[in-house]
């Protein structure tokens, strides 16, 4: 396409054919030179700006993009450029000093946390970006927990060191993230006088002497520290390097042994390469987190960060996945993202764990038990893609032609390949006497959070209903955190999302990308229900359909369990006697009946949470169909739930507000009216940081109210904390309001 040719010429000065050949050679380089990393942080910490500088210094772009100008590479959606925020993750690939870096820039807003989750699922390392003036913020905690869940080694980058209030927030990382920061750099100067860093490994000073605001920072001065430097700086560096050596020795036995045997008389004589190797081992073992600093907007400190990515974060072959080893050299890949292109159809992002991927080949989807032909293979470069003839393990690919594949599916070369892997897994399972779960040859998928907001969506006319349904199906496939359901009573289409901004963006995309002017109903909170007491019930279904008689009797008990965890699931168990009596088919029918009841509580029809069900007895006459068993179980569950008494649970949010002291009392008064509970008030330079918990139902339109109260001089962030029982007065008000709506 002409657009692609122009893009390639603008950035690379290469013809498309030559560029494709060059890309193919680079992509299929040695696996130990590949780095699959993600950039993660709180909103406005500088992720996209840092990514933009990396692309520029690596030679991918010829001009420095700016978020405020709306011309960055990874924020290519119209909504992203208008709002100045990242909404969806974007993948880019570039070279840095003989290494191939596949980078995914992720959103920092809580409404789009699924984008972070599915990116981290397939990455090998991550760069956590911090605003040095703010330290660890609310969403920083969230993305850090996601990285820990996937056991991903991280590097910390303290950005915005040029801000007047910037500080070295090492203690914030240690206390709030429960991490072990390994300081590798010391800043030279602070605020506007921040001019560079000192590398503690080599004791060299890296200085960016900007002659004007237009200086791109590509050239910087590197020189060893000597006696002519500031004595205070020399002392700080000496103390910091000694502390670094001692810290690494405590974390790495091999390095400690080297120190004691060869450098016991003078620790400072340790070679920098030995110290770097030890820091790498500490990072890969997730015993420590390297910390660097800089200012991406001012073009300082990004090149050392790129060096740290290649030096300390793992290559694909240094990350071990039990399932992958059973495929040996056969193809094994995970679909982690789907996009829809009007010309090409579904574009599926794959992380290749083993084998080689080639276009015009048939691929087997284990999750769907289907085989599809992949027509084209592309390398993703944000919204521009380059076609290549093959791609090897360790890379991230973009495929065309997989129309049934969705996020979380495992892709292999054939059914025979999957069967061979299963056979190897079974042999390994028997030899090692492991649990049967280890024998699965399906890669673990992507965990999707439950939506917290919902509203109705209607087309402009009935003639557009079919088009709207098709659009919503495409958007759900792209974004699994978006749920669409049909209300059985009103027949309306219900849109469920992660927040106000999430639903607003979806609404805007339907209008812009698909040309349908839809109408949204008022936003409503996705409540949950639970039970108050333990209760038992029994039910018998006796029905004749045609010449066939169906008879089944069910006895079960329900009881409340802990509801404090976000998305706390309901539990189902059978008595030991029943476990051996029921056939697999009938057991599945019972489970279906219980799970269908979990989706609709007895009070208002909201999904249940924190309910444990014990199936005590199931008597089935011969000839009874599984569908009748499920129906009887559902009816019995409804009886038990009503006897146990219902309780509405509301989502409660963790709120963090940064505000000036002169507006603090106004914000506190407003929170009191919103049923908020203040947990702490901290000082951050000239501002106050208010930490509170507030019911989500009370946070509608809060950004507008806060802007009015503080004259626009405050920021806030929200994160789902837990579900809590509503007090009786609020629950009665909700019941009356919903009854009025119905």
TrEMBL record:
<dbReference type="InterPro" id="IPR041095">
    <property type="entry name" value="EFG_II"/>
</dbReference>
<dbReference type="InterPro" id="IPR020568">
    <property type="entry name" value="Ribosomal_Su5_D2-typ_SF"/>
</dbReference>
<feature type="domain" description="Tr-type G">
    <location>
        <begin position="32"/>
        <end position="317"/>
    </location>
</feature>
<dbReference type="InterPro" id="IPR031157">
    <property type="entry name" value="G_TR_CS"/>
</dbReference>
<dbReference type="InterPro" id="IPR035649">
    <property type="entry name" value="EFG_V"/>
</dbReference>
<dbReference type="InterPro" id="IPR014721">
    <property type="entry name" value="Ribsml_uS5_D2-typ_fold_subgr"/>
</dbReference>
<dbReference type="Pfam" id="PF14492">
    <property type="entry name" value="EFG_III"/>
</dbReference>
<comment type="similarity">
    <text>Belongs to the TRAFAC class translation factor GTPase superfamily. Classic translation factor GTPase family. EF-G/EF-2 subfamily.</text>
</comment>
<feature type="binding site">
    <location>
        <begin position="159"/>
        <end position="162"/>
    </location>
    <ligand>
        <name>GTP</name>
    </ligand>
</feature>
<comment type="function">
    <text>Mitochondrial GTPase that mediates the disassembly of ribosomes from messenger RNA at the termination of mitochondrial protein biosynthesis. Acts in collaboration with MRRF. GTP hydrolysis follows the ribosome disassembly and probably occurs on the ribosome large subunit. Not involved in the GTP-dependent ribosomal translocation step during translation elongation.</text>
</comment>
<dbReference type="GO" id="GO:0005525">
    <property type="term" value="F:GTP binding"/>
</dbReference>
<dbReference type="Pfam" id="PF00009">
    <property type="entry name" value="GTP_EFTU"/>
</dbReference>
<dbReference type="Pfam" id="PF03764">
    <property type="entry name" value="EFG_IV"/>
</dbReference>
<dbReference type="InterPro" id="IPR035647">
    <property type="entry name" value="EFG_III/V"/>
</dbReference>
<feature type="binding site">
    <location>
        <begin position="105"/>
        <end position="109"/>
    </location>
    <ligand>
        <name>GTP</name>
    </ligand>
</feature>
<dbReference type="InterPro" id="IPR027417">
    <property type="entry name" value="P-loop_NTPase"/>
</dbReference>
<dbReference type="GO" id="GO:0003924">
    <property type="term" value="F:GTPase activity"/>
</dbReference>
<dbReference type="InterPro" id="IPR030851">
    <property type="entry name" value="EFG2"/>
</dbReference>
<dbReference type="GO" id="GO:0005759">
    <property type="term" value="C:mitochondrial matrix"/>
</dbReference>
<dbReference type="InterPro" id="IPR000795">
    <property type="entry name" value="T_Tr_GTP-bd_dom"/>
</dbReference>
<keyword id="KW-0342">GTP-binding</keyword>
<dbReference type="InterPro" id="IPR000640">
    <property type="entry name" value="EFG_V-like"/>
</dbReference>
<protein>
    <recommendedName>
        <fullName>Ribosome-releasing factor 2, mitochondrial</fullName>
    </recommendedName>
</protein>
<dbReference type="InterPro" id="IPR005517">
    <property type="entry name" value="Transl_elong_EFG/EF2_IV"/>
</dbReference>
<keyword id="KW-0496">Mitochondrion</keyword>
<keyword id="KW-0547">Nucleotide-binding</keyword>
<dbReference type="GO" id="GO:0032790">
    <property type="term" value="P:ribosome disassembly"/>
</dbReference>
<dbReference type="GO" id="GO:0032543">
    <property type="term" value="P:mitochondrial translation"/>
</dbReference>
<dbReference type="InterPro" id="IPR009022">
    <property type="entry name" value="EFG_III"/>
</dbReference>
<keyword id="KW-0378">Hydrolase</keyword>
<dbReference type="Pfam" id="PF03144">
    <property type="entry name" value="GTP_EFTU_D2"/>
</dbReference>
<dbReference type="InterPro" id="IPR009000">
    <property type="entry name" value="Transl_B-barrel_sf"/>
</dbReference>
<dbReference type="InterPro" id="IPR005225">
    <property type="entry name" value="Small_GTP-bd"/>
</dbReference>
<dbReference type="Pfam" id="PF00679">
    <property type="entry name" value="EFG_C"/>
</dbReference>
<dbReference type="InterPro" id="IPR004161">
    <property type="entry name" value="EFTu-like_2"/>
</dbReference>
<feature type="binding site">
    <location>
        <begin position="41"/>
        <end position="48"/>
    </location>
    <ligand>
        <name>GTP</name>
    </ligand>
</feature>
<keyword id="KW-0648">Protein biosynthesis</keyword>
